[in-house]
Fold each of these.
Amino acid sequence: WALTDTIPELTAGHKPKVYCFENMQENAPGQALAAKALAMRFPGLLEFVQSDVDFESMPVAIPGCVGGYTIGKLKEQGLVVRSFDWRLDYMHTLVEAERVIEDCKSTGTKVLIIVAPPQHLPRALITVISVVLRSYPDLLVFAQPGLELLWSGQSAQSQVPSGLGKAARGWQFVAVTLAVQLLSLIHI
């Protein structure tokens, strides 16, 4: 398991699952394009699964997250997506990882490919690996970054301190994201 592992050639016997981590609306199109690239590389061999979280009904809203948005972007790319109907009071990376690994284990899936925006991928992969080691060590996990955004474009991070705003440009976003990721590693 590493961010640089190459996804092996797959055969019909593998039927890996692909899961895109929920993220801010600004990041979902890049994830959907990366998922579409996987579908083109492995035609007919992948099962796309996705959370269908009703963010609007959560007691604490996550700004920039709208229920069904990521699923919509995946479907716009022509992908068939099986959704998880989650009724949650909160949403974070660990909850997603636990639910996806639980689904892989219950269906006998042996390969999982996770897709996340580049700034979230290290955290998502570390979290998934921690869940896999505890609950389903036979699962092989590969990571695929969502397509990067243009430096002149916008991205977002739900954990950026509120004084800095939810969206930033270029190097400002990279610096804040790196700081947030480093702080999250300290608390693992």
Amino acid sequence: MTSSFSETFEQSRTKFRTAAAENGAMMFSESITGSGAHGEALSIDFAVWRKSDETKRAFVMTSGVHGVEGFAGCAIFIDLCSFAKEYFLKLKEGDVLVIIHSVNPYGMSWYRRFSENNVDLNRNCMLPAELAEMLVNPTTEIYTKHYEVLNPPVPVPEMQFDFFLFQSLGLLLRYGFEGMKQATVSGQYLYPEGL
């Protein structure tokens, strides 16, 4: 038996698609923008087992929200597909089982936790009211005021003395570690290219 664990996103996706299809799943795939680390097209793949067209209850399992962490979850799902067929026989009319291979295929392929838009899907999933509250948070103003320090227009060379270190230290002294941490996190809602 081959290992369910994979070294690349493409290997994992292929194993998942094969295991799910061989065990009676209907397969759906949603392409996303961007390319993988090895030039592969990226997609979010869905394996669905259902008893009827009507859906009364759904059991949905996801992996790979943090991209690189998806390798373990996807390996479990690949093995789980072999049990899904047996579980499918126990489903009642209207029951649906959905397994989603990787919610963040870009992060999984590039071995990082962020999406192709530099978004941490686990930390940035907010309801509209939560987002509105975040945008008027005073820490957002700190981020805006010190945007150039937090997001230098050019990479800061290791040996160049451009006051970046002093500016950063000054921000920490002025707002404290927690204040700067919150400002950095909340500022990304206004500036997608930011931290």
Amino acid sequence: HICFHVGANFVVTGARGRSSNWMCFLVTHDGHHNGWHIYSLFTSVSKTNASEMTASFIYLVGSASMSVPALCLSGIVITDGNCFERIVASFLVMELCVGLFSPVQGTLRSKYVPDAQQGVILNIFRLPLNAIVVAGTYATDHMERSTVFFLVSGCLLLAALLQSSMIVSTPQTVSANKKDN
């Protein structure tokens, strides 16, 4: 069975589509339909800014993962000798976050940045980004490693808060503004 939303570009397996809205039914082993909770979940997600929420969540997970080396290296957390394994695991989680963020970034870029001005706008933001990279590289030479990881974790937390502020914007308004440009 397939559950789909008419006009959407994606298909979710597991139930059957029946109308122009999400209409999902899962049949249990005793023959009862219990898919209305899935219907309400999909309709609420499809009407919200799911990509903004996903990006905020990815930033929060990245911030938490970068706080692990900060806490281990600073000695704030009493370690039992497993600090190396925890730091490696936190780096793997951060790499996962980077990989998960790439498709979300493309979705957000196509949603908020007008197609005709994408090259110009993205080039304008490269200068501040490079300044942050240079400052971070400079910081690793002149600050304690734990402090640098605290700063990285704080920057990711700030990014999560700023990304969360984008959830307030409605998709219809953004789409209408993008079509006008």
Amino acid sequence: MMFAVRSSIATRLNRHLLPSSSSCRTTSAALFSSEPSIDVSTFQTTLTNLAPSISKSLSANGYYATPSPYSILPEHSIRTMREQSIHLRKIGRFEQSWSEKIDASGKVTRFDKEGVLACEPDGQDYHDAPDLIMYLSVMLQTLPDLLNSQEYGLSASSFNAKLAVTSPGGSGLAGLSAYGTSCS
């Protein structure tokens, strides 16, 4: 069973992330500080406080959406991550998003998600998107333990993070998400 944890950050990052018509390849050092601006302690405290409502929503709906636009991170952090997402898009880190479906016989079929581009940020993207990497790292290190204390069996070692961008007419569910990918 897989649950998605989505926040309003996804909505804000999801707007207009298509590259500009210019072939701007500004170095990330000129765009972003090498140190993330996210206050890790405050972020972890916020996740801890929201864990019961996240758990309840996951159980009832299979997803979680924040109660207000800036209930997890402040506006300046969201804007910074949006700028970093745009930068990742401009430097070619996004590719066609796809999924797999498994039929009753066990046959796996891959299909593209029309109108959706995706990036799976990792440590190599730190200098290009330090706040995004910090956000994903804290989210993925904090949430499994918090949700497991709420009776979930999420693996703390098996997870994925994806940043997705939709073009007009693309999937309405894309955004910045942290996924717990296995339950015991």
